[in-house]
Amino acid sequence: MNIMLFHSAYGLRPGVHAAAERLRAAGHEVHVPDLYDGRSAQTVEEGMKIKDEIGSDELLKRAVLAAAPHSDAGLVYAGFSLGGSLAQNLALGDEKARGLLLLHGTSDIAEDAAVDELPVQLHVADPDPFEPDDWLNAWYLRMRRAGADVEVYRYRGAGHVYTDPDLPDYDAEAAEETWRLALGFLDSLD
Predict the structure, then answer these.
(1) Is the distance from CB of 95 to CB of 118 less than 8 angstroms?
(2) N or C, fewer C-beta in 10 Å, the chain?
(3) Could you tell me how far CA 30 lies from the centroid of its own chain?
(4) Which letter does DSSP use for residue 75 in this model?
């Protein structure tokens, strides 16, 4: 599977590279663009500051430019938190998208969004201050209405970006379960 993996608001950190290597070891081709031009953050506040300095429109433009050379092959879009939001936007706009793997984050959905049974898997902490229950319920319904085939996995007690071993949110058990399910999801797309 050809995967475009977007980093979180923390930037392109070792945890993102480790995730890409895990996916490569499972036989996938993985592209990991640096949307922050080499900058990274130690705290979510620092990451949000970088994100705001670059701007949402510019980040989306950078994501589109990174994906464009690979999109003819039919990408699986994936991302962590902010990167999940970008991945979702690209997947919903790419008629050749093979799937969408969201780790810790979602995005709003245009009313006219339409996909043909796009496979989607979301992994999120429970509770998650960035993905509250009412938001996730509405998101799920809008994704289904758009035509996506959605699976949602919630991890009780995990922190927001619980798959990154270098962050305080890390939860080893939840991370391993997430990767087990995510790899199975990707295998099902072949």
Answers:
(1) no
(2) C
(3) 13
(4) P
Per-residue pLDDT of the chain (190 residues; tens, 9 = 90+): 999 999 999 999 999 999 999 999 999 999 999 999 999 999 999 999 999 999 999 999 999 999 999 988 899 999 999 999 999 999 999 999 999 999 999 999 988 899 999 999 999 999 999 999 999 999 999 999 999 999 999 999 999 999 999 999 999 999 999 999 999 999 999 7
Distance CA 123, CA 77 (A): 14
Q: What angle do CA 11, 13, 19 make, to 5 degrees?
A: 115
Return the biggest CA–CA distance within the chain: 39
Phi, psi of 168 (to 5 degrees): -60, -20
Q: How many CB atoms within 10 Å of residue 96?
A: 10
Query: Helix, strand or coil for residue 11?
Result: strand
pTM of the complete model: 0.97
> Looking at the domain 2-188, which fold is it?
Rossmann fold (3.40.50)
Contact 76, 42 (CB under 8 A): no
